[in-house]
Design a protein that fits this description.
The chain is an alpha/beta fold and about 260 residues long. Helices cover about 40% and strands about 15% of the residues. Belongs to the pyridoxal phosphate-binding protein YggS/PROSC family.
Amino acid sequence: MIRKVMAEVDVKFGIRQTLQKIEEAYSKRKSISNAPKPLLIAVSKTKPVDLILDAYSVGQRDFGENYVQELVEKANDAKILEHCQDIRWHFIGHLQSNKINKILNLPNLHMIQTVHSVKLAEGLNKAWEKVKAENTEKQPKLNVLVQINTSGEDEKNGVQPEDAVGLYRYVLEKCPNLNCEGVMTIGAFGHDYTAGPNPDFGTLMKCHQEICTTFERDPAELQVSMGMSDDFVQAIEAGSTIVRVGSSIFGARAKKPTDA
């Protein structure tokens, strides 16, 4: 089955096409914003290692994974370790506090995008201090994003928008081992853009602005992670600086039994 999927999916074309769309959307936005060109996170969840190697071979370095065990297996895969030494892993799924230690010791872990609570931030902060002590090659601080539930859906994780400044403050002031690079949302799926802009994107940008104002941050230096395969162009137009694209690159994925 995996061979058949690989035969049908041109990952290299998917990467190039996605980067071209990012460039076009960014070019339109440059006149009204000094935010940096969006970073592409290739979401490789449920996809075989060989497809990751294909993406890496054309310059893609940032990859996103949703499931702890899958990231553990891929980050330690012999082919990845040999051929993708500059890969940067972003964890973009729900991280439970009891799974923290499984993920922080992984090679090439770059960022946890889904810090949704004080409890998780505190756990990551304490754990990273131990990781640094045991491995001096690790970066001084663990990069994180504050996850915000912009859609109000119970099944979505994230702090409520009105609490975003508070969680950012906690990370900034109480978590010296974390580097909070910005904000992130998943948002509701299937927004009808004929009805107008995505309200979830607007909500995240409002949180972004509130954090920048409160802490006197340059908006161009605070990352905004929003937008996926079906709406990353609109997300960039709204202000996104990180987009998480999976199916447009790797093809549709089969639903896993562990999906909620």
